[in-house]
TrEMBL record:
<comment type="similarity">
    <text>Belongs to the DEAD box helicase family.</text>
</comment>
<keyword id="KW-0694">RNA-binding</keyword>
<keyword id="KW-0378">Hydrolase</keyword>
<feature type="short sequence motif" description="Q motif">
    <location>
        <begin position="129"/>
        <end position="157"/>
    </location>
</feature>
<dbReference type="InterPro" id="IPR014014">
    <property type="entry name" value="RNA_helicase_DEAD_Q_motif"/>
</dbReference>
<protein>
    <recommendedName>
        <fullName>RNA helicase</fullName>
        <ecNumber>3.6.4.13</ecNumber>
    </recommendedName>
</protein>
<feature type="domain" description="Helicase C-terminal">
    <location>
        <begin position="363"/>
        <end position="508"/>
    </location>
</feature>
<feature type="domain" description="Helicase ATP-binding">
    <location>
        <begin position="160"/>
        <end position="335"/>
    </location>
</feature>
<feature type="compositionally biased region" description="Basic and acidic residues">
    <location>
        <begin position="38"/>
        <end position="52"/>
    </location>
</feature>
<dbReference type="GO" id="GO:0003723">
    <property type="term" value="F:RNA binding"/>
</dbReference>
<feature type="compositionally biased region" description="Basic and acidic residues">
    <location>
        <begin position="521"/>
        <end position="531"/>
    </location>
</feature>
<keyword id="KW-0547">Nucleotide-binding</keyword>
<dbReference type="Pfam" id="PF00271">
    <property type="entry name" value="Helicase_C"/>
</dbReference>
<dbReference type="InterPro" id="IPR011545">
    <property type="entry name" value="DEAD/DEAH_box_helicase_dom"/>
</dbReference>
<feature type="region of interest" description="Disordered">
    <location>
        <begin position="504"/>
        <end position="531"/>
    </location>
</feature>
<keyword id="KW-0067">ATP-binding</keyword>
<keyword id="KW-0347">Helicase</keyword>
Amino acid sequence: QYEHCLSLSLSFLSICKTLTTRFGLLNRRNWIMSRYDSRTGDSTSYRDRRSDSGFGGASAYGSSASKRESSSVGDESPKKPDLDGLTPFEKNFYVESPSVAAMTEAEVEEYRKKREITVEGRDIPKPVKSFRDVGFPDYVLEEVKKAGFTEPTPIQSQGWPMALKGRDLIGIAETGSGKTLSYLLPAIVHVNAQPILAPGDGPIVLVLAPTRELAVQIQQEASKFGSSSKIKSTCIYGGVPKGPQVRDLQKGVEIVIATPGRLIDMMESNNTNLRRVTYLVLDEADRMLDMGFDPQIRKIVSHIRPDRQTLYWSATWPKEVEQLSKKFLYNPYKVIIGSSDLKANRAIRQIVDVISESQKYNKLVKLLEDIMDGSRILVFLDTKKGCDQITRQLRMDGWPALSIHGDKSQAERDWVLSEFRSGKSPIMTATDVAARGLDVKDVKYVINYDFPGSLEDYVHRIGRTGRAGAKGTAYSFFTAANARFAKELISILEEAGQKVSHELASMGRSTAPPPPGLGGFRDRGSRRAWS
């Protein structure tokens, strides 16, 4: 009889709890929707963003879009999130300092012209000249001071006020310009203003990156600058066991840096969700499109609340990148450092040698003999096989070389990068997996053993040197098979104030396409050079 009474009591308490929870959620939902109903004229409100099909609103959550994305990525798709009941959040944290407010329009224009800053959008904030002007909390400024920075870079000077205002942002700047901190420091401020994560919550900040190497580097910066405010971050990428990544997600992290494929895998296995994401970053957006991540990006973004803040970073601005931005961004600011046209960092000395395929290896060895002084040298090749073969030949000839490419395990890639960073192995051969976002200090020379398949990749490859105000030199071996790039390459060289050799100029004047069959010339010549 006692057990029967106890069972009835527990059942009654369970029913009461269920009714209370449902009633509470209903009241909360009504309060939220009434708040948004009163803000229908606000262009940043949740209701307006969701109804604007042109900017990641209804189209991102509609059934037809869902079917398209599901069919292009895989048969299974994470369950669509229910946005009803999500709590409103704050995203505008910018307070203009007196010194910035005192700047006249003429002074603002002069400063932007001096630092080659071009802006687009409405209600654009003035640029900041010092870290104190940004209004970052003391704990953020302390980390900046520890890192040894003296003043904001051009992209930070204009990008920080824009990001802190909570608006969507397009940032276009060359590699090594400080883009990572341009979105990470505002992200830390954003996280600290949101409610603390509850059990089962996903991240507040999501950063998508094209490669494992770039994702790891972003996470290192996030850990460094977020440590003082106890912000946890993790890196989600393929090629390594899932266990440690799953444990991080289950414990709860405010910032997730991820490559698209592994993140979708984690979502489909219910190891994380994107319901709490209110700050989304797409880093190296152009590279992600080059690598075919368009369907995965669309799929991921469709699971994030549409009133999020989105920051879209790219070093180039091709039409594909622009079209993708129109689907995900709402009324964005746009800041361009320099020109949106393709151009190289002026701190890099560029030398292009027109040679035959069979001369490459001997030219490489002679070049290494001239420049080898213990400095880090990065050698780019087109293929994984080429990387391994050239590395093997260099080591047989007594050169301290290692290689990195997509077929290497993550542990081996990490070890190679560690050896290269420390200077134990100052020569590293690589495919384009290392071209974007790879931030290794003191890379003095970049050598394009194989000229890349696009001028965008050329700019990013040579951008591994001359970073953070340092000087660097880039050598490129240019063959008849690369003739179609001659005119554009000459334009890039001339824009950067570099000398153009007579051989390259002559090749640029020729409008004839490369003779058929030259595509296979590289392999035949390379085998002779390696034998």
